[in-house]
Specification:
- This protein is of the alpha/beta class and 464 residues long.
- The chain has a single domain, classed as TIM Barrel (Alpha-Beta Barrel).
- Strands 1, 2, 3, 4, 5, 6, 7, 8, 9 and 10 form a ten-stranded mixed β-sheet that branches.
Amino acid sequence: WILNYDIMARFRRRTCIILLLFILFICSIMMALKTLRPDRAGFGDPFGLGLLPELQQRTVILENKQNSLNRVQGDTVTRVNNLHSITVNTMKASMPSVNKLDEELSSPNYNFHIFYYSWFGNPQFDGKYIHWNHPLLPHWDPKIANNYPKGRHNPPEDIGANFYPELGSYSSKDPSVIEAHMKQMLSASTGVIVLSWYPPGMADENGEPTDDLVPVILDYAHKYNLKVTFHIEPYKDRDDRSMYHNVKYIIDKYGGHPAFYRHKTSTGKLLPLFYVYDSYVTLPEIWANLLTASGSQSIRNTPYDALFIALLVEERHKHDIHRSGFDGMYTYFATNGFSYGSSHHNWASLKAFCDSNNLMFIPSVGPGYIDTSIRPWNNHNTRNRVNGKYYETAFSAALLVRPEIISITSFNEWHEGTQIEKAVPKRTGQMVYLDYKPHKPNVYLELTQKWSEKYRKEQEQWLM
């Protein structure tokens, strides 16, 4: 009897230990999955709160995305390093297998638009490093800024990114790089390159003018059956007059190229399409001068008419966008929960608003977000990739609203860690870069191709 009692006691202890381990395992999975749906969590003030048109016109116009993101506020910190170790262990087994791509069999999906940056430079092609040596941006509060490092990155080992590109610290002018990028974008079954663009002689504050590179990008895009449209950045003194002249410049200079993108509207017209970054910093009345038929600088019903897509950050922007005469809206940010526009659970209501007002809704999906290499104080806006699960969740949310176009943030915005370009593991003396392990460098290209095909099939059902 004593022996039986001893056996039972050991059995109970073993059962309790197994149960405890099981509970801990479930808890770790829940913690990992939490990053997939952060949209209902508190992340401080949404991005751009201080940059709405009413306030912005009284202060300064944003010159680029870097300045915008310096306004990010919040007090919830994401424990990225801890989460990374948890998700590698818990999500490895649940990552769906993706068929290996055959680049020759991939076909472009012209309803998949991908944001592309040609602002990188290196000594071989540019005489110096450009953008890879990005400065560490200080927090706007001096007390907080003093707690973080200052200075610039020092390529090629130390670059302004949390991941490291397979192509190294490349130059956007390098023909072999441009060709490699086109092959990667085609392999992902994207179809339209949304090229970051400043007028001739202008650039972001950390870069140099790149308009002279546009013809080369168009030529290589055409070689791979890709199209190119323009992401018009918030250049100095951007208003209705300068926009009219710049749209005219783009169409006159590049509109005849076979890779220049034109979108077929519901009425059968083929029109150029322009994304307008930080559109909300300009008053609706100013935009209406350009974008409404009765406006003083109206581009409507002229040879330079086009589809103009505004950036929506806050919910109120949807009314301003409609009043301004824009043709649609996009959300850009790859940070679910960061702003009203980038929060997946708001896309259905935004799509309904667009449908009722004859506007296009273009949700932006991304694989994750991390910019602590250039904003070391911005941990709370990091979105862990969860081995591809975050990206797939974003695509799933986008398909639910049946959009005419899906935009992808981004192909190569390395500073913000939204890239789907091939990245490789790299370790230096002081830095261990993030990577795509346990998957291959092309995993996000494969996932994009998978969802491009899924979108095509579902779109056929929507149109039936």
